[in-house]
UniProtKB/TrEMBL annotation:
Belongs to the glycogen phosphorylase family. Gene3D superfamilies: Glycogen Phosphorylase B (3.40.50.2000). The keyword Membrane does not apply. The lineage of its organism: Bacteria, Pseudomonadati, Pseudomonadota, Gammaproteobacteria, Methylococcales. It comes from Methylococcus capsulatus. It catalyses: [(1->4)-alpha-D-glucosyl](n) + phosphate = [(1->4)-alpha-D-glucosyl](n-1) + alpha-D-glucose 1-phosphate. InterPro entries: Glycg_phsphrylas, Glyco_trans_35, Pyridoxal_P_attach_site. This is Alpha-1,4 glucan phosphorylase. Phosphorylase is an important allosteric enzyme in carbohydrate metabolism. Enzymes from different sources differ in their regulatory mechanisms and in their natural substrates. However, all known phosphorylases share catalytic and structural properties. The keyword Glycosyltransferase applies. Its cofactor is pyridoxal 5'-phosphate.
């Protein structure tokens, strides 16, 4: 698409869609005009695909996810359409990057899980698979984080305030969803015994569609997000009686369902509204699939041939019971046939081993929201446990563990068990995690049917996380190996040949320094802290969680601080420690860790004795947009979770893809990253998963580690002395007391190996050529971690899905 055509499109949209003459147009107006022009080109592709998608033999994947975290659309869509350069030319001197930077991102997810879903949509589109992502159009996404006096303050997200150009409302495909009430039996016209659900209330789900364009592929997939509206938003009867508030109450009540994203990452929020949200989007999505199936002239007997449905964690697991309800209650299908179709339709991805994230709903709550589903779940469970009994007669322990209903005390519905029973395949998200899913999480299900278990190691899209966010490195790589690697990441291997080339290394260092200089400017503008771009950028960006161990990183910083204070002539590699991440608003320890980071930053950054050898920064409001500026600038990637706790991680992949070296434990996908990049290019430390288990089993006493290590003891004492808290000796006591008394995440045991490993990092960074060689090799060997590879594995091994043939 030539610059002239784009120029005309921008001018047209500025006039006709935005309604502003160029002479008075603001940057926001220009952003809109460009975005409309780009959307037109995406819609054009979407419309052209209509026939293909609706052909009777096309099977598609429905990716059900309560979270999607796509990041801003404009820059990525320009890249995927291959028109960024021409758009720049069309703007003749205006700053395209400024306009791109104005876009609010849809923060419709908490972290890794939602971002993974967005990477998979990018790859599904790029690889031309027929696919729809179904989710919730939260009016308020993840909160914006600001820092006041070192503490996290949550500010309501308002992503929809400036309007959202990328979505199209489709009221004609709205769905009605029942909630609450009771069930009753009746006999139908054929004399058959049937059940119907009489709800307390109904809400309407209205879909908003965002087409996601693939990279240079002519293909699009759909992101369909449901928004809740009242069935009848204005009750005239109430209004006429003079009850104005009553008249709008129903509207407010219904709309609450899609109002706000629960801001908990890997923590169960057992609230009624959360269950309603889950059911709401699942019910709308299943009905939408049934509609599409019938519209294409198929019977529901073939539902599973037209749709495979991926459950992104247990949040959408109620879909199993909902499809059964539709097939049996509404379409009068015999139970056995409906169950066969259901089992062939669903597959389930587990994303966590954290017990607090495994969803279970108190039975009374569940029954009051979804009375019919509870009956269906009981019936699924009865039939399932009958089978188990014939295989394992008399093993009541096994039966209790496999049951969808937890009856060990107060009764619960276990959503993971429902997902397991209702799916043909379950997968973990990294090799180690998939093993632990078999051996720790679902050993009884594994005994029952080992063939059902698979691994699909996560992947990330190289388009957004290298092509878009790191144009300098992209150009450098293009210059050596051509540009097709963005759609075939294995081609990065060809860079290995240049890893020792001094000229190439110098260019590589130059690009890294430019990226660090840019980030240093952002840090200064957003926090006031001045950092030196030539220092080692040591980066830990992710949700704040005790198992991710941001506080282990802090213990290392305080160790260095202590060493510098004890020895004023000490020489260490100058470092900038950068943290970013949000804490769940109700997670006290996580919020205290943020306060600790900021308090240590305040003390260390201002102490002249430190001679600027270390700087500590907490960059507020970590999100996709900010991440894109951070990854390219990283020298060191902190992946230091307690082994066996991080399912996979994906930030680890994005940082390595941008040339950062990893310091990490053998946890999640770190294991595979290390295998790929080579042990010699990875800083490994800490307990393995088995060692951690043995240590706990043998009676772990964290205090012993502290007492046996004077340096560690000094660090803990320094925190307790009030030095970082203006003399308040109690402020951080919950952290230090937990470390000394319980230390669930084994920081004390891993402290010394971590600090020693950091010393190796310090030495390695002094040899810049060797470091750069390692950095090049990290990038060269990241091919495996493309989301294209992951999506192909899902398509081939789980969904049995074929891509569309490329356009002639
Ligand atoms: O699989 C994607 C990511 O999901 C999580 O973020 C999650 O929410 N369960 C995990 O914590 C990550 O390890 C994982 O990479």
């Amino acid at each position: 698409m030539s610059p002239e055509i784009l120029k005309a499109a921008f001018a047209d949209n500025l006039n006709f869609a935005v309604g502003r003459p160029a002479e008075i147009a603001t940057p926001e107006d220009w952003y809109q005009a460009i975005a409309f022009s780009v959307r037109d080109r995406i819609m054009h592709r979407w419309v052209r695909q209509f026939e293909k998608r609706n052909a009777p033999d096309v099977r598609q994947v429905a990716y059900l996810s309560a979270e999607f975290l796509p990041g801003p659309h404009l820059g990525n869509s320009l890249l995927n359409l291959g028109i960024t350069d021409n758009a720049r030319k069309a703007l003749a001197g205006q700053d395209l990057d400024l306009y791109i930077g104005l876009e609010e991102e849809p923060g419709l997810g908490n972290g890794g899980l939602g971002r993974l879903a967005a990477c998979y949509l990018d790859s599904l589109a790029t690889l031309c698979y027929p696919a729809t992502g179904y989710g919730i159009r939260y009016e308020f996404g993840i909160f914006d984080q600001s820092i006041k006096d070192g503490w996290q303050v949550e500010v309501t997200d308002k992503w929809l305030l400036p309007g959202n150009i990328w979505e199209i409302k489709r009221p004609n495909f709205a769905q009605v969803v029942k909630i609450g009430g009771h069930t009753e039996t009746y006999t139908d016209e054929h004399g058959a015994f049937r059940v119907r659900w009489i709800p307390d209330r109904v809400v309407v789900g209205v879909p908003y569609d965002t087409p996601i364009v693939g990279y240079l592929s002519d293909s699009c997939v759909l992101l369909r997000l449901w928004s809740a509206e009242a069935a009848q938003s204005f009750d005239f009867a109430d209004f006429n009686r003079g009850d104005y508030y009553g008249a709008v109450e129903e509207k407010v009540f219904s709309e609450n369902i899609s109002k706000v994203l629960y801001p908990n990452d890997e923590q169960l929020e057992g609230k009624r509204l959360r269950l309603e949200q889950q059911y709401f989007f699942v019910a709308c999505s299943i009905k939408d699939m049934i509609r599409l199936c019938l519209r294409r002239g198929s019977t529901l007997e073939r539902f599973h041939e037209m749709f495979c449905v991926q459950l992104n964690d247990t949040h959408p697991a109620i879909a199993v019971a909902e499809l059964m309800r539709q097939l049996v209650d509404k379409y009068a299908m015999p139970w056995e046939r409906a169950w066969d179709i259901t089992r062939r339709t669903f597959s389930y991805t587990n994303h966590t081993l954290m017990p607090e994230a495994l969803e279970k709903w108190p039975l009374p709550l569940f029954g009051s929201v979804l009375p019919r589903h509870l009956e269906i779940i009981y019936e699924i469970n009865r039939r399932f446990l009958d089978e188990v009994r014939t295989r394992f007669p008399g093993d009541e322990g096994k039966i209790a563990r496999l049951s969808i209903i937890d009856e060990s005390g107060e009764k619960y519905v276990r959503m993971a068990n429902l997902a397991m029973v209702g799916s043909h395949t379950v997968n973990g998200v990294a090799a180690l995690h998939s093993e632990l899913v078999k051996t720790q999480l679902f050993p009884d299900f594994h005994d029952l049917d080992p063939k059902r278990f698979q691994n699909v190691t996560n992947g990330v899209t190289p388009r957004r996380f290298l092509g878009l966010s790191n144009p300098g490195l992209t150009r450098l790589i293009d210059g050596r190996i051509g540009d097709s690697w963005l759609s075939n990441l294995d081609r990065l291997r060809e860079l290995e040949a240049f890893a020792g080339d001094v000229g190439f290394q110098q260019d590589w260092m130059r690009v890294k320094l430019e990226n660090k200089t840019r980030l240093a400017r952002i840090i200064r503008d957003r926090t006031g802290v001045v950092v030196d771009p030539s220092s080692l950028f040591d980066i830990q960006v992710k949700r704040i969680h005790e198992y991710k161990r941001q506080h282990l990183n802090v213990l290392h910083i305080i160790t260095l601080y202590q060493r510098i204070k004890h020895d004023p002539r000490l020489q260490i590699t100058p470092r900038t420690f950068l943290f970013g991440g949000k804490a769940a608003p109700g997670y006290f320890m996580a919020k205290l860790i943020i306060k600790l980071i900021n308090s240590v930053a305040e003390t260390v950054n201002q102490d002249p004795a430190v001679r600027d050898l270390i700087k500590v920064v907490f960059l507020p409001d970590y999100n996709v947009k900010h991440a894109q500026n951070i990854y390219p600038a990283a020298d060191l990637s902190e992946q230091i979770s307690t082994a066996g706790k991080e399912a996979s991680g994906t930030g680890n992949m994005k940082l390595s893809l941008n040339g950062a070296l990893t310091i990490g434990t053998l946890d999640g996908a770190n294991v595979e990253i290390r295998e790929e990049v080579g042990a010699e290019n990875f800083f490994l430390f800490g307990l393995t998963c088995e060692q951690a288990a043995r240590l706990r089993a043998g009676g772990y006493n964290p205090g012993d580690y502290c007492h046996g290590d004077p340096e560690l003891r000094g660090v803990i004492e320094l925190i307790d002395s009030g030095l970082f808290s203006h003399g308040d000796r109690d402020l951080f006591r919950p952290i230090t007391a937990h470390l000394l008394e319980r230390d669930d995440y084994l920081l004390m045991a891993d402290y010394r190996p971590y600090v020693n490993c950091q010393q190796e990092v310090d030495h390695a960074y002094r040899d810049r050529h060797h470091w750069t060689r390692m950095s090049i090799l990290n990038v060269a060997r990241m091919g495996k971690f493309s989301s294209d590879r992951a999506v192909r594995e899902y398509a081939d091994n789980i969904w049995k899905l074929k891509p569309f043939a490329p356009e002639a």
